[in-house]
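queue> pop job 88
queue> type: inverse folding (structure -> sequence)
queue> payload:
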């Protein structure tokens, strides 16, 4: 299988598990080593990529003293930093926060040992980021990062998105990822 075919198959798999059932507006899959997404959904017209990823950019970030400062945002590096910190049970050290698809997500909840739906394997690291009327559930497997984005404006709920992302992560673990 070529790299392009493999990427397409993962795009489609994310789409089938997370977006098509209606639980997530968008989804992505990244390698834990790099944090860069290599699969995105919805697949049609590459809409998933627009929703979950933005190339490196400058962003005004509010500082503790109330002033703002332009800072470099590399979303893949941030996702990698946050995922690896939470996998170790630590808080990420980030001056910018977590940005995905050009949106800042505030991490409100995390659990180093979140049980999977079937509870057939070891618990996995999971964390949740909130933004206005939407959020992202992120689960870390042995080698992968899975992100499911939901939107209240599309009548999606955090609970259904979380359950779908955990089930997809469990599927990946069963495949050895």
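queue> result:
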């Amino acid at each position: 299988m070529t790299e392009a075919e493999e990427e397409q198959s993962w795009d489609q798999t994310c789409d089938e598990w997370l977006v098509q059932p209606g639980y997530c507006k968008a989804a992505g899959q990244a390698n834990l080593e790099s944090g860069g997404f290599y699969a995105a959904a919805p697949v049609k017209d590459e809409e998933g990529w627009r929703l979950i990823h933005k190339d490196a950019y400058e962003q005004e970030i509010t500082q503790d003293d109330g002033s703002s400062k332009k800072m470099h945002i590399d979303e893949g590096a941030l996702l990698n930093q946050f995922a690896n910190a939470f996998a170790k049970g630590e808080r990420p050290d980030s001056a910018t926060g977590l940005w995905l698809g050009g949106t800042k997500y505030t991490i409100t909840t995390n659990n180093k040992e979140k049980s999977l739906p079937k509870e057939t394997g070891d618990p996995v690291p999971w964390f949740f980021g909130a933004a206005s009327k939407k959020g992202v559930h992120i689960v870390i497997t042995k080698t992968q990062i899975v992100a499911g984005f939901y939107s209240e404006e599309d009548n999606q709920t955090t609970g259904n998105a979380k359950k779908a992302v955990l089930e997809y992560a469990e599927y990946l673990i069963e495949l050895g990822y």
